[in-house]
Design brief:
heterodimer; A: about 290 residues; mainly alpha; MetI-like fold; 2 domains; B: about 500 residues; Methane Monooxygenase Hydroxylase, Chain G, domain 1; 3 domains; 9-stranded antiparallel β-sheet; 18 strands
Chain lengths: ~290, ~500
């Protein structure tokens, strides 16, 4: 036994150099586009033509342009994105935790079947039904313009449609870890299931709900395909659709402001992500959280 | 301590929110009925009754919690999926988007041609019996008529006033329009016609001349075929949403209509060379792209996890940098990479002094896509591989060493199969994700390069989902039916893959 351990250490000691080299090579790969985008954002000309990664004339023109040039309403895009991602995150987690409570705690006829059905439905990405969603919302929009194509309201409804699948499933796992004795004690005190939910479960799960809400926020921020289908008007776009639309195809002309916009939008998200790292890592190992 | 508070307030809140929801739904149903959209009205009515029943009933406890999510799921996920399947069995594309009745109405309207005799009239605008009317004089025969939207009435010579050129300028019961009325006449004149017979009518050509026109197409009684009255060609319903010439099926009349034709899209994808060529190519690339991506990401992620499995110096720092690609918003990273590889302005060409059109060559573009996907995905695989390495039982390694296994044998024969087993659901999940990785392809290459001049509809890097998107929302021809058929095929593949993975992981039995 001790012999084996000693042998293992002997074999492993000299091999640390390759670990460092490997890490450094990969770090260069990982950080290369980030350096490029930072450098371009600070360069006066959008400077990809200098042949150097270090910006030659450091200036903030690209940043100020985002908030002064009326053809790039970047501020509006940010507001749209934050509004839709926040509203969706809160509502979908609320809807999700309702459902998760029923799945985790209540026993009713058809529970197992409905769980299985939900599991199967949520593996289908809803954007596969893109053409159908388009036709349905075209029709809805004629009656209720607030949820039609081109509206943030309609996009929100499509996102919420998926909340049962994603949030409920994730939250059920968390609720399952809360001991049953709690509900039983409350039941003996004469609490109804709604009271147990609002007064015991919700306060207990608040930290988890906050994390799930933030993860959902990040997910919506990244969503492109449905948003690009819905948001055609330049002023209703999200950051994802907006940045794509003004950089797509014409990299030369708009690269500088695009880089600046990316930096502004990425910093809070990367910070959010790194601060939630612990939860995301346990989330990805358990299932999948972020696409 | 009694935690449970009295529920009077919550009861009031509940009734209030239900009342609000009911009021909103009633208004929405009312709007739908006004627009005679009874399907939407019906669905909303069911939701209205369901909500009130669920929340006032004492029994349906679980439903109270499941109701909002289920309604959203059914309407915005399940209905679109069913609708996709339904659209996929229709010939539903640009030129075939409306119903048959609408198409026939449009065909009747568009096909107006001047009468064979070339009859034209001088026209005076005015009113008769309070309606817009015209006083017409046949330019060849000088016969005068009074015409309104309902009929054309011949006037007896002498019963009306004419000018020196024998043109009728006033008649009893007809009020000649004033100059201002004439100026405002184009609001009604453009749609104004005077019917002469079933297929012939007088149509104004400006504000003082009119011509005798007839409909180009004469329909038979059952609306199953029609005849071009000028050329005599007979057109028949081809059963696929269009009228085509009886003796030449390539002479198609537009607009057509959406026609139920279950086999058209699916069989077409396999047998019609115009569709099957791109479809098979895209299909093969989709599978290889997803498979190679997962393999590369996993190989790199696992190697990194092994390298970082030991407490080396700066491990925390390395780790923070190495998961940056995963922390960046992915749509943004993809756009940044697209800029880096841009052939004209891209950072890579500038830094290396090259002039390579990275994204204009089919194989280079494929390579770039795999590389960018590797960048996006390796941190995720690093994280999950680290988890798997830590989950490996340590005594196995010792047992193998005692049995005389070498280091590489232990890795390849024992550790790797175990890790694979632990990670296989996530590997399958990642495969399914990449199978549908719309953002990567669309934002990086838009599916291109596409040889449009040679009539290519699918680009070299298009995967099924981007191909379906282009098919449905492309710029020149939109084929919703075909796009839905491709989506259905993808549903089946992704669904089967997930089912298989679920069966293996036995999640379904543990619920």
């Amino acid at each position: 036994m001790s012999n084996a351990v000693a042998k293992k250490q002997q074999v492993r000691t000299p091999s640390n150099a390759w670990r460092h080299i490997f890490a450094w090579v990969l770090m260069v790969f990982a950080i290369f586009p980030i350096v490029v985008v930072l450098s371009s954002s600070l360069s006066k000309t959008g400077a990809l033509s200098t042949g150097s990664l270090w910006p030659t004339n450091i200036s903030f023109t690209n940043y100020t342009m985002l908030f002064t040039n009326p053809t790039i309403p970047f501020g509006l895009w940010l507001v749209n994105t934050v509004v839709i991602a926040a509203v969706n995150a809160v509502l979908s987690v609320l809807v999700g935790v309702f459902a998760a409570y029923a799945f985790s705690r209540l026993r009713y006829r058809g529970r197992k079947q409905s769980l299985q059905a939900l599991f199967l439905i949520q593996v289908f990405p809803s954007f596969l039904a893109l053409a159908a969603i388009y036709v349905i919302f075209e029709r809805l929009g004629k009656l209720y313009p607030i949820v039609g194509l081109g509206s943030l309201g309609g996009l929100l409804l499509v996102y919420l449609g998926g909340s049962m699948g994603s949030s409920a499933w994730l939250l059920k796992g968390f609720l399952d870890t809360i001991p049953m004795e709690l509900d039983e004690a409350a039941k003996i005190d004469g609490a109804s299931p709604s009271q147990i939910f609002w007064q015991i479960f919700l306060p207990l799960t608040t930290p988890i709900l906050v994390v799930t809400t933030l993860l959902s926020f990040i997910g919506t921020f990244n969503e492109f395909i449905l948003a690009s289908l819905f948001l055609q008007d330049v002023n209703t776009r999200t950051v994802a659709v907006g940045l794509q639309s003004f950089v797509g195809g014409t990299f030369g002309a708009n690269w500088g402001p695009f880089a600046a916009g990316s930096v502004i939008a990425a910093i809070p998200l990367v910070a959010l992500f790194l601060s939630l790292q612990k939860y995301i890592v346990s989330g990805v190992t358990a299932g999948s959280v972020k696409g | 301590m009694n935690l449970i508070k009295p529920s009077a307030i919550s009861a009031v809140l509940k009734v209030m929110s239900l009342a609000l929801a009911t009021a909103l739904l009633v208004w929405m149903i009312y709007t739908a009925i006004l627009a005679s959209d009874f399907i939407i009205a019906g669905v909303l009515l069911i939701i209205l009754i369901g909500a009130n029943w669920v929340y006032f009933s004492k029994k349906a406890v679980a439903s109270k919690f499941l109701f909002p999510g289920t309604v959203l799921l059914v309407i915005f996920v399940i209905v679109p999926i069913i609708y996709t399947a339904w659209m996929s069995v229709y010939n539903y594309k640009t030129g075939n988007e409306i119903t048959k009745d609408q198409a026939i109405t449009q065909l009747k309207l568009v096909g107006l041609v001047p009468d064979a005799a070339g009859t034209t009239y001088d026209m005076v605008l005015g009113k008769a019996h309070g309606q817009n009317a015209v006083l017409l004089t046949d330019q060849a025969t000088h016969q005068a008529f009074l015409g309104d939207a309902n009929k054309l009435t011949p006037l007896q010579p002498g019963s009306y006033t004419m000018d020196k050129l024998q043109k009728a300028i006033a008649a009893p019961g007809f009020t000649v329009a004033s100059a201002t009325d004439i100026a405002a006449s184009n609001t009604w004149l453009s749609t104004f016609t005077v019917p002469v017979s079933n297929v012939r009518f007088v149509s104004p050509q400006g504000s003082d001349v009119a011509a005798l026109m007839h409909e180009k197409f004469k329909f038979n009684a059952g609306l199953t075929q029609l005849q071009d009255t000028a050329s005599g060609v007979v057109y028949v319903d081809n059963g696929n949403g269009n009228f085509v010439a009886k003796n030449d099926a390539t002479k198609v009349l537009f607009p057509g209509w959406r026609q139920l034709n279950p086999a058209e899209n699916y069989i077409g994808l396999l047998t019609n060379p115009k569709l099957s060529g791109p479809f098979v190519g895209v299909f093969i690339w989709t599978i290889s792209f997803a498979f190679i991506s997962v393999l590369m990401m996993w190989a790199l992620g696992l190697t990194l996890a092994i390298a970082m499995d030991k407490k080396i110096k700066f491990r925390g720092f390395y780790r923070a940098i190495l998961i940056l690609p995963y922390a960046m918003p992915s749509f943004m990273s993809i756009l940044i990479w697209a800029g880096i590889f841009n052939g004209d302005y891209g950072a890579l060409n500038n830094l290396l002094g090259l002039h390579v059109q990275w994204l204009n060559d089919a194989w280079l573009a494929k390579g770039v896509i795999l590389l960018v996907n590797l960048w996006l995905g390796f941190p995720y695989f690093y994280l999950i591989s680290t988890g798997a390495l830590q989950a490996l039982p340590t005594d196995i390694e010792e047992a193998a060493e005692i049995d005389g296994a070498t280091g590489s044998q232990i890795f390849w024969r024992i550790k790797l199969p175990l890790i694979f087993q632990i990670l296989s659901p996530l590997l399958i999940g990642s495969f399914a994700f990449n199978f549908n990785n719309f953002n990567l392809i669309y934002l990086l290459t838009k599916g291109g390069p596409t040889d449009v001049l040679n009539g290519q509809t699918a680009g070299a890097t298009d995967i099924l989902i981007t191909y379906a998107y282009k098919t449905a929302f492309g710029s020149n021809q939109q084929n919703l039916g075909l796009a839905c058929a491709i989506s259905v095929i993808m549903f089946v593949i992704v669904g089967a893959l997930s089912m298989w993975s679920l069966k293996r992981s036995r999640v379904l039995e543990e619920m």
